From TrEMBL:
This is Uncharacterized AAA domain-containing protein ycf46. It comes from the Bacteria. Residues 58-82 are annotated as: Disordered. Keywords: ATP-binding, Nucleotide-binding. It comes from Halomicronema hongdechloris C2206. SMART domains: AAA. Pfam families: AAA, AAA_lid_3.
Length: 507
């Protein structure tokens, strides 16, 4: 949703007698712009309240002579209104139309007296079309207020807002930084900043410009690196830029061919025929056989950034917070589209449970995921990976949920050779010095991860013994390793028997 659309939506809520609007955000700057832009057309006054300043006429309120701090002063707080209850009692009885923006107010509603007074003011405002706007970074309203409030979803900044931010920063910097960006460079810079708040975008652009006195095309990479840090620090997602994705996948020719065909679904020709864009794939199979690498390969083959959702990060001890975490994660993905969203070990967050351990949380998350997967309109391709089929809800395996369900089996001889070559070359080893046929035969029943472990262990031994890595050292490590295909033979046989009947092989 563009910022202009957000303004129109906010205005509609105000004039349709919604007396409580709740906004979960850390971007108070954008809330201020939203409210003042909306109220300029509505010809409504704006008041702000915080526990530090009390209630005052907003500097940007229409008709306010203190607008933008032109006199270098801020308005004087109205009476003794720093206390939440005193402020609400002051509002009780006011009849003129206005917007009252109450900052960080959700926490004060835990007091039953404050909550009761707040409801009475809201009831009065519903008749004169005044509105209470409450903001907080994470809000949990008491039950009665939760039913009365409307939640306004303030999306992360749109490309238009980011373009404006770049222009604003460069105007403020003036002669301190030289700008040498083509229109294509500016577009790449905006794409790199998607998923950041305006404040974060402003800071990273200013830093890139001031670090060497210029803003040029190579600064896009610096912005991308900072964005990866910002997303990781958010605690829900990890970000892998397309340029940094070096995933190499041995074998999986069936999956790679499917990806080439599926990419056509994002083309203008597909849209012309009203074909839906591909939604995603589910990859199930043996541990260590390349499911995670396959997710990275999807992003690399399509030259898209990769977002990884770690299921364990979603869970929160407070009721409703886990669902909010999921909403924040998919909102971030929607903001950054087109993107590949990788949900690792999906059975751990949305799998079947008895319902006793998590109070039905896994089922609620699963329901939210299915709804979002069916209704999403942005170009987000979901790659879900799973190890344990028994924990996956039957609804997830039904045809139509995903575009395809792939099964990853133990690598065959050709795939084992490709895996050996990839990892030996990655460790600066000359392939010609090894007897690959012998190694391929010796690693039958090994997963890709187990083959990589063998090479690492043999190379450590070679370094310790101060000798070159050779076939004999690798064979020694191979014979010393018990692969999962032996250690968990029965479980693996059941998985392979079930999957081979129902799913498509990646080969």
């Amino acid at each position: 949703m563009s910022f202009a659309s957000s303004v129109r939506h906010f205005q509609t809520l105000v004039i349709s007698f919604h007396s409580i609007i709740a906004i979960e955000t850390v971007e108070e700057e954008r809330v201020e712009t939203l409210i003042h832009t909306a109220c300029k057309d509505l010809q409504m006054m704006v008041f702000e309240w915080s526990v530090a300043q009390g209630l005052m006429r907003s500097p940007g309120s229409p008709g306010n002579r203190w607008r933008n701090g032109s006199d270098g002063q801020r308005p004087t707080p109205i009476g003794k209104t720093t206390d939440p209850l005193d402020m609400l009692r002051h509002l009780d009885g006011i009849t003129y139309r206005a917007i009252y923006w109450l900052k960080d107010f959700g926490r004060h509603l835990k007091d039953p007296v404050v909550a009761r007074q707040f409801r009475e003011v809201a009831h009065q405002f519903s008749f004169n079309r005044s509105t209470l706007v409450i903001t907080e970074d994470s809000m949990r309203l008491p039950s009665p207020l939760h039913q009365e409030a409307v939640y306004f979803d303030l999306k992360l900044p749109s490309p238009d807002e980011l373009y404006q931010t770049i222009s604003q920063v460069m105007r403020n910097l003036g002669s301190r930084a030289k700008v040498d960006l083509s229109p294509e460079d500016i577009h790449a810079l905006v794409q790199a900043m998607r998923g950041m708040t305006l404040k974060q975008a402003r800071q990273v652009i200013a830093y890139a410009a001031l670090a060497d006195g210029k803003l040029i095309a190579t600064d896009v990479e610096r912005v991308v690196q900072r964005k990866a840090q910002v997303i990781h620090e958010g605690g829900l997602l990890d970000y892998l830029p397309a340029a940094a994705n070096m995933a190499q996948l041995g074998g999986f020719q069936g999956l790679k061919a499917w990806l080439q065909r599926a990419w056509v679904g994002f083309s203008p020709e597909a849209h012309r025929y009203n074909l839906p864009a591909p939604k995603g794939i589910l990859i199930v199979g043996v541990q260590g056989c390349g499911k995670s690498l396959a997710a990275k390969t999807v992003a690399r083959q399509w030259k898209l950034p990769l977002l990884k959702l770690d299921a364990g990060r979603l869970y929160d001890k407070y009721i409703g917070e886990s669902e909010k975490n999921f909403h924040r994660a998919v909102t971030m993905a929607e903001t950054m589209a087109p993107v590949v969203l990788w949900i690792d070990e999906i059975e751990k967050s949305m799998g079947q449970t008895s319902g006793e351990g998590d109070g039905g949380l896994s089922r609620r998350l699963f329901g939210s995921f299915l709804t979002w997967l069916q209704e999403k309109s942005q170009d987000i391709f979901v790659v879900a990976t799973a190890n344990d089929l028994s924990q996956l809800p039957p609804e997830l395996l039904r045809k139509g949920r995903f575009d395809e369900i792939f099964f990853v089996d133990l690598p065959d001889a050709a795939e084992r050779q490709a895996i050996l070559e990839i990892h030996l070359q990655r460790r600066n080893q000359a392939i010609s010095t090894f007897h690959l046929d012998t190694l391929v035969q010796a690693t039958e029943g090994f997963s890709g991860a187990e083959i990589e472990h063998v090479i690492n262990a043999a190379l450590y031994r070679a370094l310790y013994e101060q000798r070159q890595l050779d076939t004999a050292l690798l064979l020694h490590e191979i014979t010393s390793t018990v692969p999962l295909s032996i250690a968990r033979r029965e479980d693996m046989q059941r998985l392979r028997a079930l999957a081979q009947e129902r799913f498509v092989t990646v080969r």
